[in-house]
Amino acid sequence: MRKETFYSLIIILFFSALIFAVQNEEENKEHIVVNTCLTCHQEEDSMPENFHEEDIHMQEDLSCAGCHGGDPTTEDEDESMSEEKGFVGVPTKAEIPNFCGKCHSDFTFMRKYQTRIATDQVSQFYTSPHGKGLKKGDKNVADCISCHTSHNIFSAKDPRSTVYPLNVPRTCNNCHGKKLLMMNYNLKTDQFKKYSESVHGNALLNKNDIGAPACNDCHGNHGMNAPEAISVSHVCGACHLHNMEYFTESKMGHAFKENDFHGCEQCHGHHAVQKTNDDMVGIDEISTCVNCHEKGEKGYAAADTIRTYLGNLVAKYDSVKTRLEEVQAQGMNDIEISYLLKEIKHNIVKARTLVHTFDQNKVGEETDKGIKIAE
Ligand code: HEC
Ligand code: HEC
Ligand code: HEC
Ligand code: HEC
Ligand code: HEC
Ligand code: HEC
Ligand code: HEC
Ligand code: HEC
Ligand code: HEC
Fold first, then answer.
1. What is the rounded CA–CA span in Å between residue 172 and residue 92?
2. Which end of the chain is more exposed for a tag (fewer CB within 10 A), N or C?
């Protein structure tokens, strides 16, 4: 190697190391977080009531000033909380969405923290009944902090969050359960009660099954729809895909649309959805079908036939099960018969979903398969 090249290499290396060292020092400096707002408020015993030091904004070193403005580096009270330093103080209720939106509507800013984070909360919010009410000056509706709190905010995935699935129903019920409040809007206050006794509420609140819907899974979070605008089949169909597909493609599905009937809700309800059973179909009084179909109609006849098909298959299943128990009692090989029983169970489950085609032939095809196996 020539001498000149050697010296230039040394020089390049030296400067690179120098630049690296300076950068490092700057990064370190950035990491020593001064937050005189916090220290003084703690000393003065004037911290906001609901403050949690692990609030997601505190974790990200956004400081009090991130939301309230002001200068978090000076210990001087007046200077720190001065208008010149951008201090905005305590927002009014109507100001809150844009107070939060300062960051949450800023895609470039938010992306630094999460590569995939929505920045449409504020615009969505103003399309909801809550946002529309707030715009008109209604002080009873939900704003950002009614659902999220102001100093106790966590990621929605954190069980401590007020909007963690298990906590959502109670967060909504803080207002929607209040009679005096909801009277002004002619709204019922039984949603939480009905919901918590439903198959969904029981799964979520008692069995911690976060696959079951909380209020926001049907109503939305920010761009919450007014209920009359919820396309119920679609809301329910997000989870019960086959039921929705069968129903919307059925003759009756089309008739429901024309008659402005409420899809799934018509037979299952919405807040009080209960566990189902075969007696919901048929011509007995407890069947859902007889609410609309009378003797002589095609729907009535179909209801009767479907119920008979389902009944026959279940009876076969039961007799195979009895047979299995006998075989087991005699200590004989039960592997094959157990396997067949599982298959029949599968046919039953499928047939019950196929009820939503409201087509006796389609249900019949499935029940026939099961009956063949049973025989
Ligand atoms: C040296 C002490 C001190 C510092 C520094 C300080 N504060 Fe305060 N702050 C107070 C005291 C004391 C009060 C309550 C007295 C009052 O209402 O003026 C207060 C009031 C507030 C209020 C309520 C105002 C209102 O209108 O009710 C907010 C919000 C606030 N501070 C935020 C901040 C933020 C953000 C910072 C940092 C940028 C900060 N404070 C820095 C002492 C301090
Ligand atoms: C995520 C945004 C946000 C952050 C971060 C934040 N605040 Fe607030 N703060 C609010 C909002 C919104 C209100 C008004 C609603 C309320 O009173 O809860 C408020 C109200 C206040 C009030 C007056 C009402 C009360 O509860 O006493 C004080 C004082 C205050 N904040 C101080 C602070 C201090 C000190 C910090 C930092 C430790 C801080 N805030 C961090 C959003 C924030
Ligand atoms: C009626 C209650 C409600 C109101 C009002 C509300 N939120 Fe939410 N927010 C939620 C729920 C519920 C979630 C959780 C969604 C989930 O589980 O993914 C959420 C999630 C979020 C998230 C996480 C990212 C996302 O979009 O899912 C942010 C950020 C957020 N909200 C900010 C805001 C802001 C800012 C406002 C005010 C403009 C606001 N929220 C108003 C209920 C609400
Ligand atoms: C100074 C900018 C700023 C302001 C103002 C602000 N936030 Fe945030 N907020 C953030 C950032 C950045 C994150 C993401 C932190 C992370 O992902 O680690 C966040 C996270 C959140 C989350 C959790 C999001 C998730 O992924 O689940 C919620 C909820 C939230 N903020 C609500 C609010 C509300 C409500 C207000 C107003 C009272 C508010 N924020 C004001 C910057 C801000
Ligand atoms: C701070 C109180 C408050 C909270 C918290 C709240 N709401 Fe509301 N909500 C209201 C008020 C008040 C109205 C009536 C607004 C109007 O009609 O102008 C309303 C309206 C609604 C409506 C429209 C009802 C109709 O038929 O007009 C739905 C749906 C709704 N809220 C769902 C929810 C859900 C879901 C949550 C929780 C994620 C929630 N709300 C949290 C106060 C609240
Ligand atoms: C499985 C879906 C689903 C869940 C979960 C759900 N809702 Fe609803 N909600 C609906 C439907 C659908 C309607 C529309 C009823 C109508 O228009 O006949 C509705 C109507 C409403 C209304 C308007 C008044 C009324 O009672 O008809 C409010 C308020 C409401 N829901 C709040 C809530 C709250 C609070 C929760 C959680 C405790 C919740 N909902 C859970 C589907 C759901
Ligand atoms: C977020 C997903 C989700 C949404 C949305 C949803 N469900 Fe469900 N649903 C479930 C889960 C999970 C279960 C099982 C709960 C359990 O039994 O543990 C269930 C159970 C049911 C059952 C009882 C099934 C049985 O075995 O008897 C019926 C009926 C039902 N849902 C109807 C509806 C209707 C109608 C809607 C719309 C108004 C709806 N669901 C919306 C997830 C959802
Ligand atoms: C005309 C009445 C009717 C309508 C409309 C209806 N169902 Fe059903 N649904 C039933 C009956 C009857 C059963 C019981 C079938 C059985 O067990 O034999 C049932 C059972 C169910 C079950 C449990 C069985 C299974 O498939 O897992 C779910 C989940 C369900 N329905 C969801 C829905 C959804 C989602 C919609 C809307 C897309 C809907 N239903 C529309 C009558 C109806
Ligand atoms: C909310 C009212 C309502 C309920 C509940 C209802 N139906 Fe219907 N159904 C209708 C309407 C409306 C039509 C279209 C007009 C007609 O053919 O009677 C229809 C049509 C039908 C048809 C098609 C008839 C043809 O012309 O080919 C069948 C089959 C049917 N329904 C079966 C059922 C069964 C089975 C149930 C119970 C699980 C049921 N329906 C529950 C309202 C309902």
1. 21
2. N
Q: 362 vs 139, 212, 318, 370, CA distance in Å? A: 54, 29, 22, 13
pLDDT of residue 9: 59
Closest CA to 373 of 342, 352, 351, 334: 342
Nearest CA to ligand 5 atom 36: 172
Q: How many CB atoms lie within 10 A of CB 192?
A: 19
User: Is the confidence at residue 28, as pLDDT, over 70?
Assistant: no
Cα–ligand 2 centroid distance for 161 (angstroms): 17
3-state SS class at 211: coil
* Percent share of the chain, pLDDT over 70: 89
Tokens 């920010």 belong to which residue? 222
| CA–CA distance, 371 with 351 (Å, rounded to integer) | 12
Report angle CA 266, 272, 278 to the nearest 5 degrees.
Answer: 65
Looking at residue 17, its pLDDT comes to 54
Ligand 8 pocket test target in 236, 268, 281, 312 with most atoms within 8 Å of CB: 268
Widest distance between CA atoms in the chain: 107
Residue 25's pLDDT is 47
Distance separating alpha carbons of residues 53 and 71, to the nearest angstrom: 20
Ligand closest in space to the Cα of 83? 1
pLDDT digits (tens, 9 = 90+) for 83-123: 999 999 999 999 999 999 999 999 999 999 998 889 999 99
Count helices and strands in the chain by DSSP H and E runs:
22, 0
Closest CA to 283 of 308, 309, 304, 302: 304
Closest C-alpha among 209, 217, 136 to residue 172: 217
